[in-house]
Amino acid sequence: MYQSTERIQELLNACEQILNHMEVNESQNMLLEKIKQQLKRSNQQFQYEGNDTGAYKQLQHSVHELSYGLEKLQESVFQDYQSYTNNSIDDFEALSYKEQMNYANIYHAKIDYYSTTKLLQNLEKVNSELMQLL
Fold it and tell me: pTM for this one?
């Protein structure tokens, strides 16, 4: 049980770090900030109430809500990424890192898209750990 709660805490902390490094456009910023605040509250609540079935169920509910918000954000940043590359994502990703850095807005859209993918994967792992605890 301790390993699962420790792993959950590590995953939640990793999610916070990823979110804090994202640079979305102005229209997506409100959703990003909402997700950040929701994750921060969930993480703090889990830290203080962690070893309790009620806390696990509450976190599971929060993970579901976070995933829903992240899916919306992911869809939006992916649309930006597609638009910025003129629907040529594969061509852009074939460029070297140095060449990609010449297109800062496209590069940031790429990073934001892959960040949302990693966040969703981490939340799936949190949910798996919670399922083992319940």
Answer: 0.90
